[in-house]
Amino acid sequence: MMAERRNGDRVVFERGFAAHMMGIDGTWRRGCIMEDVSEVGAKLTVEGSVEGLNLKEFFLLLSSTGLAYRRCELSWVNGDQIGVTFLKQVDKKKRGGRRMQAADG
């Protein structure tokens, strides 16, 4: 059995939560079941093979419309299950706005 490496509390779904994985460039998509989730990552059971997919960085789509999603990177693989780490978003608008003000002032 694999030792727990995740920091923080996690929520375990009794039946799993249906979701999709999608490549950053949109060239591939796979169904998956989110088995558990924490603030920093999740454990997914992937439908079909992950062989040949670029899993370094991808989106985890949590809604059918794609409005709820997280940007992820692969942490580990164990058969059809993978662990993912959620990547933080950088607010480019705020950073760009500060630079503009400094340049104008």
Write the layout of secondary structure elements.
Elements: E1 10-23, E2 29-38, E3 41-46, E4 58-61, E5 69-78, E6 81-86, H1 92-104
Antiparallel strand pairs: 1-2, 1-4, 2-3, 3-6, 4-5, 5-6
Average pLDDT number:
83
CATH topology: Thrombin, subunit H
Query: Main sheet: which strands, in order across?
Result: 1-2-3-6-5-4
Helical/strand content category: mainly beta
Total domain modules: 1
Rg estimate, integer Å: 17 Å
Q: Which H/E pattern describes the elements?
A: EEEEEEH
End-to-end C-alpha gap = 59 Å
Helix content: 10-25%
Strand content: over 45%
Walk me through what this model shows.
This protein has one helix and six strands. With 105 residues, it is mainly beta. It has one domain: Thrombin, subunit H (Beta Barrel). A six-stranded antiparallel barrel has the order 1-2-3-6-5-4. Strand 1 and strand 2 form a beta hairpin.
Descriptive terms for the model:
1 helix; 6-stranded antiparallel barrel; Thrombin, subunit H; mainly beta
Can you describe this structure in just a few lines?
This protein is mainly beta.
